[in-house]
Design a protein that fits this description.
Blueprint lengths: L4 H9 L3 H15 L4 E2 L1 H11 L9 H10 L7 H21 L4 H11 L6 H4 L1 E2 L1 H18 L7 H14 L3 H16 L3 H21 L12 H11 L8 H8 L4 H5 L14 H5 L2 H14 L1 H11 L56 H17 L1 H4 L2 H16 L3 H5 L3 H13 L9 H24 L1
Parallel strand pairs: 1-2
Helix pairs in contact: 1-5, 2-18, 5-6, 5-8, 6-23, 8-9, 8-10, 9-11, 10-11, 10-22, 12-16, 12-17, 16-17, 20-23
Length: 456
């Protein structure tokens, strides 16, 4: 079978999907102008306007966002670039799948008119660039066989590694990709991918002249575990351990009951912890040795989006699901009380948000489907479920050849493992690549079923 970027170009040239893709891109782009902006991105724009920088949300992404937005003056430019990257990445991933050409066309035409690509793509956040990069790496794994990779695919690999490295979870995906390429006997690509991602992550702040954050977020998950143990009334904590904890923060803050589903509740101690990392890790080891069940339960709550069904529950819905509470009573923004599936607001001051002519007509139209999908964010945003579904589909479709194709999903598996081990919280956007792969697997099942029914 002919592989490479030429096949993708022919697929575009011989079908109407190029027109559909462009139409979808400009419809969502116009309706969502200047893009949906997370609070984190709004904070970065504010820092840029003050001539400051931070690597808290990844140095490479901050540099990219600053460069493309002219230090926050034109946020719609990075939104357009990131959306274009996602559209292309989704197309190239679908084109690489070992399914019928007709199914590829139907899947792409359907998914680009949904919020899964349009709304998420025009959201400004490093999870969008990382998702695009991961999809490109998945493409390379799917098309890699005994033949030599075309030069164009080498360039796609490099782009995938760079884009994935705009997020720490994306770096974990690069590690999974490198292992997959090692299994495919592409050792040079495997080694170069790891080295490139490690260089971007570790040396990025120095190379790009980005200021390092005052707090070390790599400790957030461990501080979150400690907070969850310390506040538990039946936790076993020695006097020496309490002395170590009170050196990081007031005892009253440690004992204050807070949700364990997000490590932010322990961030009051993060700055002190960043100055005594070895002591924090020793205290963490000591506490979990005597309170392992509390720690495990906290990790399960914080990684709910990444964990599979059967053994684990779905993540919390972004909306309050209790019909007894007044609508919006517990919400801070957009009726939201938990991490969102699709961002619908712009977290910038109103005077910084430009509007286009007739945008007030198109915006509610493109956002309406997101309102209904967000109603079940605990399903559509459950990355662990959709990754499990994709694995199940591969097992059914290929059977004896399934192990070969399961290797292709190693980037997603490594991303989920990193979320469980190190992430301070869980949100659908962290595992969005898995969500897209699962949705695409579902659409392939639907198109196959439709053909079967038609043939009958």
């Amino acid at each position: 079978m002919k592989m490479g970027i030429k096949r993708a170009i022919n697929f575009l040239r011989n079908n109407s999907i190029a027109f559909a893709g462009v139409l979808s891109f400009f419809t969502f782009g116009y309706g969502l102008f200047p893009g949906r902006i997370y609070k984190d991105s709004a904070t970065m724009f504010e820092l840029m306007s003050e001539g400051r920088s931070t690597d808290q949300w990844n140095a490479l992404y901050f540099w990219f966002l600053s460069l493309t937005s002219n230090r926050g003056q034109f946020p719609f430019i990075p939104a357009l670039i990131c959306a274009a990257l996602l559209y292309v990445s989704v197309f190239l991933f679908i084109e690489s799948l070992p399914i019928l050409e007709q199914s590829k066309k139907q899947i792409f035409l359907f998914i680009i008119v949904t919020p899964f690509v349009g709304v998420f793509g025009f959201t400004i956040g490093h999870d969008v660039t990382a998702t695009s990069g991961i999809l490109l790496l998945l493409r390379i794994l799917f098309i890699t066989n005994s033949s030599k990779l075309p030069r164009s695919e080498i360039l796609i690999t490099a782009l995938g590694v760079v884009l994935s490295s705009t997020s720490n979870l994306g770096c974990a995906a690069v590690l999974g990709f490198s292992l997959g390429m090692f299994f495919r006997n592409r050792k040079l690509i495997s080694i170069c991918s790891i080295l490139a991602s490690a260089t971007i992550t570790l040396a990025g702040p120095s190379l790009l002249s980005i200021e390092r954050a005052e707090v070390d977020l790599s400790l957030a998950a461990f501080v979150g575990d400690i907070k969850c143990i310390a506040q538990h009334p039946e936790a076993e904590i020695s006097q020496n351990e309490w002395e170590a904890l009170t050196a990081l923060g007031p005892k009253t803050r440690w004992l204050e009951p807070k949700s364990c589903a997000i490590a932010d509740n322990g961030f009051f101690a993060l700055e002190s912890a960043s100055n005594s990392k070895s002591e924090v890790l020793r205290t963490w080891m000591s506490l979990i040795r005597n309170n392992p069940q509390i720690m495990l339960q906290a990790r399960i709550q914080r990684a709910s989006n990444a964990l599979p069904p059967i053994f684990f529950r779905s993540p919390p819905n972004m909306f309050d699901t209790s019909y007894s509470n007044p609508v919006g009573a517990l919400a801070a923004n957009d009726l939201q009380i938990h991490p969102d599936l699709f961002k619908t607001s712009v977290d910038l001051p109103a005077n910084q948000v430009g509007r286009l002519p007739f945008q007030n007509i198109l915006e509610p139209i493109v956002l309406l489907p997101t309102f209904f999908l967000n109603q079940r964010s605990d399903l559509w945003g459950w990355g662990g479920f959709w990754l499990t579904f994709a694995i199940f589909m591969l097992l059914i479709r290929f059977r004896k050849e399934a192990p070969f194709y399961l290797v292709n999903l190693l980037p997603l598996v490594f991303m989920h493992m990193a979320l469980v081990l190190f992430s301070p919280s869980s949100a659908p956007r962290y595992v969005y690549a898995s969500i897209l792969v699962g949705i695409i697997s579902l659409l392939n099942l639907v198109t196959t079923g439709m053909r079967w029914v038609k043939a009958k």
